[in-house]
Amino acid sequence: MEIIEGNIIDIHSARIYPGKISISNGKILKIEKSSSVYSTFISPGLIDAHVHIESSMLTPFHFADLIVSKGTLAIVNDPHEIANVMGERGIRFMIENGREAKVKCFFGIPSCVPATPFDSSGEIISAEATERLAATGEFVCLSEMMNVPGVLNGDPEVVCKLEIAKKYRLKIDGHAPLLSGSALKKYIQADISTDHECSNLDEALEKIAGGMKILIREGSAAKNYNALKPLIASHPDVLMFCTDDAHPDEIIRNGHIDQLVRLALRDGFDLFTVLKIACLNPVKHYHLPVGTLREGENADFIRIENLDSFEVLEAYKDGRKVYKKGENSISDSQDSPDFSDMNQFAQQKIELSVLKKSALPERNLCITLTDGEIITSKSFFDAGQESDFESDVSRDILKIVYLNRYSSEKRPQISWIKGIGLKEGAFATSIAHDSHNILAVGCSDVAIQAVINRIIENKGGLVVKNSSGIHTLDLPIGGIMSNKNAVEVAEKYEFLISEVRKSGCKLHAPFMTLAFMSLIVIPEVKIGEKGLFDFKTFRFLEEQ
């Protein structure tokens, strides 16, 4: 039996007291008050209620190494990124890789693979596959239902997946940005219980009124805490925290769910309310076997230095110490040969000529983005008499290219984008939500060709080309994840970011932002398999 002592943060009764925790066989046997004086605090572990591990470019094993040092002891992961590439085999890889992780990895069944019938992915998760996965008992939810029109119009495949989730008593997560009115009511009536896409307070309040729980998201590309923080005081019982997508360099620098906790505490919100959102609500909603500092529960908790910094000194998972400040918590890179067949890449290198696109003298449609948001808008530009228009850096108008990587028969889809700020070169990624085809943006066709062809040559990765050369981060697992550890990936990623910024880009997270430019289930206009896609009409505006 082991005894852990400190100032215990009892969220259930909203009190802090000096105490001793007796642990045996991974469980808390007893919690008793102590007369000793302690300088440190013991809290339940933090929980990320919705995340895509793959977006960190790390495996579950290496992702856990990183977030455990920030006090996160459990995550609800939606593996739809790898599922879009590798299907059920990719999901199985994530589960198996996460078994030995330092945090508790729970999984949802991806509901939309591909995200819509308009997307082209490597694999499909059908209703039949959903039933097969649900029957294993290894999942806690049906992950974000992005096919909003499918729900509203009663698409048979969507309805079947929703019924399977109900049959196996799985929670159903939502994805309904800006949905409101009668459409929102119908969406919620399908037993969809959460939403992590709220970007303004009115939107969140309407969804809460309809019975939804809201996940306040603070990730690398989408940051909604400031807009939604009033809910912490008014509706704490229906809130959870999540990152959705977070890159390792930002987690190292800013934190994970602990960042949201610090933000909320600094804004004056009550400690017990904030920790209820960060620790208890996800356990209750998803029925997670995660301890919350009560006798008889799993011994899952963290020791923190003080309530201001919320700096983690130790972390315990099922009574085993999995992190201690000052000791190296980062595991060696995984060089398993099992990774060699975890990919699909059929596209061949492209010729320069296929990147040509004629522009109109007036009113060419342009994707327009805002830093820190994944919602885009439309704008228009005049090309004058320059029909072979590539870019105009003085107006921040760049060419954007989408290329299917699963077929060598597919040609690039080409348009323009505003808000990147690039002044020279190009950059590209094979992390492109949600089907993970190739996305590139650049100032010239020559530079765009170079970064696309390097991705094809490496069968995935991130690539930057500028006056200093061509730089890459290889992602051999599905073209979206590295086999390297968090520190190695973060260092290489930060280097690529610095090269993009040297080229003029001012975006907070350029690769993450670019990756969302093909996510057609997010308003207002994106680029996809057949050109520009309009979210409002839910159709392609042009085909090439």
Please describe what this structure looks like.
With 544 residues, this protein is of the alpha/beta class. The protein contains 15 helices and 26 strands. The strands form 4 sheets. It has an 8-stranded parallel beta sheet with strand order 5-6-7-8-9-10-11-12. An 8-stranded mixed beta sheet has the order 17-16-19-18-21-20-22-23, sandwiched between helices. Helix 1 links the parallel strand 5 and strand 6. The longest helix is centred in the N-terminal third of the chain and has 19 residues. The chain is globular and about 80 Å long. The protein starts with a strand and ends with a strand. The mean pLDDT is 94.
Major sheet description? 8 strands, parallel
The separation of the N and C termini measures 68 Å
Overall morphology: globular
Mean pLDDT: 94
Number of distinct beta strands? 26
Poorly predicted residue ranges: none
Structural class: alpha/beta
Placed side by side, the strands forming the largest sheet appear as 5-6-7-8-9-10-11-12
Our Rg estimate from Cα atoms comes to 23 Å
What's the helix count? 15
Percent of residues in helices comes to 25-40%
Strand proportion, as a percent range, falls in 25-35%
